[in-house]
């Protein structure tokens, strides 16, 4: 039986959702016009005033916001509430340029935790569950968001944070963790560690909620099989609140966007044109309930598709596909668009683990693409001839997927550094 945290909202009619969005958008636009000079200036430069925005149909008239805007306005330039009304900040983990800092009132925190509670409940979470949160805490939104959502559901919450795998497994077995919240790469690492230690019979996990990095359907199946769980996707950005902007239900065919809080658009990343439903393009979010940091038409750079196809779970909120890459960090190699998820799919289909690195370089004005792949203990060999044959097989499979040649270098098991946070999948050495 499908569970809902807020059934009256999650299963609301399309008419009701649109009514909420229209009312909240008009109010939000007026709010930022009056309280955020940075927004007002951008709107004036685009010839837009609050009275021009009467419904969602007028959303396209508003200017876009980008991460550059957030950096330019750092720290307080986009603040929509007096600082004394704010109770928390969260920040992105980027290391270049000015950091992006997002502010929260208590109202903002409560709504964010509600969104995460919806995700946990959709994954089967109840007051009887033990929710094991090993996303990073602190400035990173993953830990605090799922921690708060778990409290709202009433789970016993283990605020483990990331790292210290021995301690993770001790608490997981001793306290009977049933729901695992972390990055998919760390879930794969934990699965590997559980099997190494022979702990499979002591693990009581039934579900995992994984996000913060790209992962493929093949990786999902691999994690589900090794941990004997159902793996759910979750999506969010620090800029818009954190995890819980969208989440997967039991159908596992996309993530429901919490439309009572966020309006989603798909645009052409080159022209900014709004594309019709079902089109592949860049995801844009407008936050209509957040008080302290109310972003309007924020360009996520994530490439995906939106769908309103009825869902068997009973939720009526629009679904977004798993992001298919990003419009800004997508790899263009020899003029071809290459997404790490494509490479991951090939590796897992060929029986290799999800630990790999993609190395892009430019030699004599020509792009090179190298994929370093770990062998499994089963297919590991000291025979140079056997390794060469295996590499040739992967080269052919990758060329069939990508349309270009990629050098493959097979390495011994455990050679590539495991990640307990976001996995570093791509190393781009090009100076372009």
Please describe what this structure looks like.
- The chain is of the alpha/beta class and about 425 residues long.
- It folds into 2 domains: about 325 residues, Rossmann fold, CATH 3.40.50; about 100 residues, GMP Synthetase, Chain A, domain 3 (2-Layer Sandwich).
- It contains 11 helices and 20 strands.
- A 9-stranded mixed sheet has the order 4-3-5-6-7-8-9-14-13. Strands 19-18-17-20 form a 4-stranded mixed sheet. The chain has a 3-stranded antiparallel sheet with strand order 10-11-12.
- α6 links the parallel β3 and β4.
- α5 packs across α6 and α9 crosses α10.
- The longest helix is centred in the N-terminal third of the chain and has 22 residues.
- The radius of gyration is 22 Å and the shape is globular.
- The model has no long low-confidence stretch (mean pLDDT about 95).
